[in-house]
Amino acid sequence: MTGFQRAIATLGGLAAAAALIIAILDPGGADMMLATGGLVLAAVGMRHHFGLNSGLNFGLMPQARIDLLASLGGMALLLSILDGDMPAASWALLVACWLFGWLAVEKAMAARHLSKALASVVSLAVPVFFGAWIIFVWEMMTIGLQIPTVLLPPPSMIAVRFAASTSILWADFQQTVIKAALSGYILGCGSAFIAAILIDRVPFLQRGLLPVGNFVSALPIIGIAPIMVMWFGFDWQSKAAVVVVMTFFPMLVNTLAGLQATQTMERDLLRTYASSYFQLLVKLRLPTAAPFIFNALKINSTLALIGAIVAEFFGTPIVGLGFRISTEVGRMNLDMAWAEIVVAALAGSLSYGLLSLLERQVTFWHPSNRRKSS
Amino acid sequence: MTGMVNRIAPIAVVVAAIMIIWYGFTVHLNAPWQIERYEKAGTEWQMSDLVRDTMAQGRPILPAPHQIVTEIWNTTVKKKITSKRSLIYHGSITLSSTLLGFAMGTILGIGLAVSIVENRAMDKSLMPWIITSQTIPILAIAPMIIVVLNAVGLSGLVPKALISTYLSFFPVVVGMVKGLRSPDPMLMDLMRTYKASRLQTFWKLRLPASVPFLFASMKVAIAISLVGAIVGELPTGAVAGLGARLLAGSYYGQTIQIWSALISAACMAALLVGVVGLISHFALRRMGLRT
Q1: Are B291 and B268 within 8 A, CB to CB?
Q2: Cα A75 to chain center, whole Å?
Q3: 3-state DSSP assignment of residue A46
Q4: Based on the domain organization, do A328 and A232 belong to the same domain?
Q5: What is the pLDDT of residue A186?
Q6: What CATH number corresponds to the domain at position A285?
Q7: How far apart are CA B210 and CA B181, in angstroms?
Q8: Which of B266, B268, B257, B286 is nearest to B74 (CA)?
Q9: Are residues A338 and A299 in the same domain?
Q10: Given A147, A170, A189, which residue is the final one in a domain?
Q11: Cβ(A209)–Cβ(A256) below 8 Å
Q12: For B87-286, which CATH class?
């Protein structure tokens, strides 16, 4: 145990002890449960002072496991008594749970000689645990502190609303993500890719367009949304047009940079094989450019969603993520707005994840992918 | 000298080509409305009349570049800065929230990057969520953030700056983490042979090594904070700022106003990126790095 871990453990134990004392001194509805929780957690936190851990060795990561169980148990206890009138002791217990969760992660990270399977489980479980904690604290804060739901609805309420209105969400998803964002994304990235290959044949154009393209991709292109709505009407075509313009330049610049990334030696080798322009392109230059192209595709997947949603603020039919968010906020239905945000976040994360998977398949030879498997 | 010409000539040609295409589209897109007017008035018209008149419409579908330049000139130099129609007034409002958001984003980004590099638990639990945070289209949530913060009592500069912060901290985190980890093992070993403490290694090796990375990501960050500030101005009901000019222009069909706001935003973005680039150039040169 390092000094840092010991400090966290002691702080956690003290917080739990505080919960115990407050629960005894100030009896409320759930003081017995809180007192028990405080007692158990205080014992867990202070155990290194009494040498308790010597007899409780479970084998793999015994320390981290006890702390994790203490943290999860405390969370379950807090959830079971969660209502609008939380006794003060429960907040002390929340702090204790958080510190024990942190301690468990610290110990799991510091643990050596983990088997390969266990190590990958840990590296997956840690971020999931962290995310769960954020949602947990959000739920505790909004309900426990009685924050009005027109400001910030608790996650449980958003989940209920999400489950109850899947048909509306699906229609909005189709309108914004599939029709506007996806079609614009394919058109924008595809045309930029073809343009890059054509421009690549003319060095003069290349030297002229790279700086201009770099400049344009730093501009607030989202501002053309009102113009596109004027030109192409209220429906998804205008949003797709915004997405085309937004995604074009990052893709163009990255593809051009990728096509230049080959080395003279490699090109010379293929030339000694008497390869034609297309063979050179397909067998050497495009594979070398793949990491750059995937980088642009990933950037663009987020940009496409942003473009499609923001363009809906400037005029839209009565369906779509951006339309729904702005009208439901206006009607103070924040839970519905958050459900739409969940849809947008899921769409964004899923497309990013799919692209990362595809990238790993296509560029399996790249050093950044090779190192992980060895 | 020939190097300069070689570099600038292609850019000049590309920009000139864009201008010519733009003028061509101005005539082409605005012509149907103009021809309709001629026919209603019963006047005879030549091609030269058409070209002249399509470039002088009040609410064209696509304004000609010189119309936009005239509009920008009229609303910056010829108007008082305090006037509600002055682009400088609107631009300064957007600029202030951009800079505030950029400053907060950079500080937050550096802080997160340091904690990620120094603590493995932070690295494992934070890094995936920082990446996920950017796949959430925050600009879509911007109106809600503005409305909610307004209800809490925060209005004006801070909510817009918070959106810029959310957008700009990400490139800084990614760049700084890369930069703080950039010293190669040889140098780290050298520090170890000097028996340098963790803090000393950080101040004397990791931090100086990360500065070029920091400046590179700050260029991205400032451009993206401007986008955040502009979008943050949309839901406030078109009160002030370049975003408000965009929205007001789209409500009233004032295309020239939209384009002039758009072009000034583009100039501001170029200027901000240029300033950061200049600072980075001098800072890196003082540190003894060739740029």
Answers
A1: no
A2: 23
A3: helix
A4: yes
A5: 94
A6: 1.10.3720.10
A7: 8
A8: B257
A9: yes
A10: A147
A11: yes
A12: mainly alpha
Q: Domain residues for A69?
A: 3-147
Q: How far apart are CA B235 and CA A248, in angstroms?
A: 27
- Of A357 and B149, which is predicted with more confidence? A357
Contact status, residue A189 vs residue A247, Cβ threshold 8 Å: yes
Could you say which of A147, A178, A201 is where a domain stops?
A: A147
List, for residues B233-248, the tens digit of each pLDDT value.
876 655 778 888 887 7
Q: Is position A153 within any domain? A: no
| Of the candidates B250, B29, B259, B228, the residue with the CA atom closest to the CA atom of residue A312 | B250
Task: Pick the residue of A228, A297, A310 with the most B CBs within 10 A to test the interface with B by mutation.
Answer: A310
For chain B, give every domain's residue range.
2-62, 87-286
**Which residue, among B19, B124, B258, would best test binding to A if mutated, counting the most A CBs under 10 Å from its CB?**
B124
Cβ atoms of B175 and B145 closer than 8 Å: no
Count Cβ neighbours within 10 Å for each residue of A252-282 and write b for 16 or more, e otherwise: bbbbbbbbeebeeeeeeebeeeebeeeebbe
Per-residue model confidence as pLDDT tens digits over B136-155: 777 767 777 777 787 777 77
Contact with chain A for residue B14, Cβ under 8 A: yes
From residue B12, alpha-carbon distances to B4, B17, B19, B76, B169 in Å are: 12, 8, 10, 26, 35
How many CA atoms lie less than 13 Å away from B256 in the CB half-sphere? 19
Q: Do A137 and A186 fall within a single domain?
A: no
Contact criterion met (CB below 8 Å) for A130 and B126: yes
Token output for A360 = 């790993």
- One domain, residues A169 and A248: yes
Number of domains in chain A: 2
Band (pLDDT 50/70/90 cuts) for residue A49 is low
| pLDDT for the residue A50 | 56
| pLDDT at site B279 | 92
How many residues are there in chain A?
374
Task: Give pLDDT, residue B104.
Answer: 94
Q: Is A150 on the interface with B (CB under 8 A)?
A: yes
B148, B226, B249: residue with CB nearest A220: B226
Closest residue in B to A301 (Cα–Cα): B135
Q: What ipTM does the predicted assembly reach? A: 0.75
CA–CA gap between residue A39 and residue A44 (Å, rounded): 9
Per-residue pLDDT, B246: 80
